[in-house]
Amino acid sequence: MEITLLSSDSIKLRGKHASLAVNPTVKATYNAVLILGAIDGTKLKVEKETVIVAGPGDYEIGGIKISAIKGGDSVVYSIAIDGVDILLGGEACLQKLQSKVKDHHIVIIQTDGSTDLSFIATFSPRVVLFYGAAAKEHTQKVAKEGMKQQDKFSVTLDKLP
After folding, report:
1. Strand order in the sheet with 51-53
2. With contact defined as beta carbons under 8 Å apart, do 87 and 94 qualify?
3. How far apart are CA 47 and CA 29, in angstroms?
4. What are the beta bridge partners of residue 84?
5. For 21, which of 46, 47, 87, 123 is 20 to 30 Å away at the CA?
6. Residue 96 in contact with residue 89, Cβ under 8 Å?
7. Mean pLDDT for the stretch of residues 98-126
8. Measured on CA atoms in the order 101, 102, 107, 113, is the torsion positive or negative?
9. Cα gap 127→108, rounded to integer Å
């Protein structure tokens, strides 16, 4: 399973059989696109045959299981790719829905820097990834010495820290 930063506000998640993009602004081929919150449709770059997920519900696309929970104007996604459980959402929405979401291996947070990050511990993640406007700031707050920012993260279930 691989997670790649496409732009400051867009990421790609790729499993063995399918790939998803979150708010893509880079044109490429994806099996599905996940929309976190309000987005300018003219900036969204997708092929006509791409499945677009923008609201609550349960979905399965190419073996990837997705559960979406509405939280205000945004959506939080629980995603299972190649046996790895991923929680994905904006920081304010994740904080609001923390009592309704189970533990996940990886938590991916689209961040704008407006929230205290102490709520992340409630998800018991093994890995926390940030992207968005305040990603660098938050990474510096929680990173251990010697850690650096990366644009790509690859892992399998048995290799999770």
Report:
1. 51-53, 32-34, 19-22, 10-14, 2-7, 152-154
2. yes
3. 7
4. 81
5. 123
6. no
7. 86
8. positive
9. 8
Question: Hey, what amino acid is at 49?
Answer: E
R_g (Cα) of the chain, nearest Å:
15
d(CA 148, CA 44): 29
What six digits make up the tokens of 127? 């890995």
* Per-residue three-class SS string for the chain: CEEEEEECCEEEEECCCCEEEECCCCCCCCCEEECCCCCCCCCCCCCCCCEEECCCEEEEECCEEEEEEEECCEEEEEEEECCEEEEEEEHHHHHHCHHHCCCCCEEEEEECCCCCHHHHHHHCCCEEEEEECCHHHHHHHHCCCCCCCCCEEECCHHHCC
Q: Which two tokens stand for residue 142?
A: 């929680």
Six-digit token pair at 118? 């102490």
Residue among 126, 135, 134 at smallest CA distance from 161: 126
Query: From the centroid of its chain, how far is CA 129?
Result: 8
35-78 pLDDT, tens digit each: 887 665 556 667 777 888 988 999 999 999 999 999 878 899 99
